[in-house]
Amino acid sequence: MALLQGHKALVTGGTMGIGRGIAKTLTRHGAEVIVTGVTEEECQQARAEGLRALTLDVRDAAACREVIEEVTAELGGLDVLASNAGIYPQVRIEDAADTDIESIFSVNVHGTVHSVQAAVPALRASGRGRIVLTSSITGNYTGFPAWSLYGATKAAQMGFARSAAIELAPSRITVNAVLPGNIVTPGLEEMGQTYLEQMARSVPLGYLGEPEDIGETVAFLASDGARYITGQGIVVDGGQILPETPEALDEM
């Protein structure tokens, strides 16, 4: 039997990048999957690739509830929420306006909470609910210039996950997170080949991850085999956070 046979999943922000990798991996493992994208254009592209897609702006709590209801009706239930929708603009501290702060927190933090709030009733009804957040090594283990706001939102997600795991445990809902390192996505590729090569050199395994690497971890956390794991964050980074100094890699 496939790892997720019979499971019904929603992946927010699943029309591109890591989210698309998650959705395709869950599908390959047997789950019925619906993804969301913030624009109809993104959703149309996802549908062209064989994914079922709905538009959703996770900043809108009411819209999250409406989409969850639609997903639950279409799939006949919901037992997996992969809360992946997020943005990662770069802005240095001295240049950050209130609008920059509000923008990233409204998507990455408020959007995460909205998605989880909306999904809890359906996940509780399933009797085997799984929530997997896409956090990051940035903010939890590492830092990078101009990503202080991004890192703050990713650390906030982990803080949310730990307490949410306790709160939802009586409903047999687990809450975990996957913390990607540098994963090859269109957003990362936009930073240029020099940046990609530099990042690959900082990874002990010697290469950057693919969206499906994150998808495999999400699939495990969504499976029945992870029923006794909750409140945890799994780093998927090829060992990127391990070296004490860059020189440590030279010793290899």
Automatic annotation (TrEMBL):
The GO molecular function terms of this record are:
3-oxoacyl-[acyl-carrier-protein] reductase (NADPH) activity
Per the UniProt record, which EC number(s) apply here?
1.1.1.100
> What is the annotated signal peptide range for this record?
none
State if Ubl conjugation is listed as a keyword.
no
> Which EC class is the enzyme in?
oxidoreductase
The protein's UniProt keywords, in alphabetical order, are:
Oxidoreductase
Matches recorded under InterPro entries:
NAD(P)-bd_dom_sf, SDR_fam
Write one Pfam family the protein is assigned to.
Answer: adh_short_C2
Respond yes or no to whether keyword Iron-sulfur is given for this record. no
PANTHER family under this entry?
Answer: 3-OXOACYL-[ACYL-CARRIER-PROTEIN] REDUCTASE, CHLOROPLASTIC (PTHR42760:SF40), SHORT-CHAIN DEHYDROGENASES/REDUCTASES FAMILY MEMBER (PTHR42760)
Q: Which NCBIfam families match?
A: PRK05653.2-2 (NF004202)
Entry protein name? 3-oxoacyl-ACP reductase FabG
Source species: Nesterenkonia aerolata
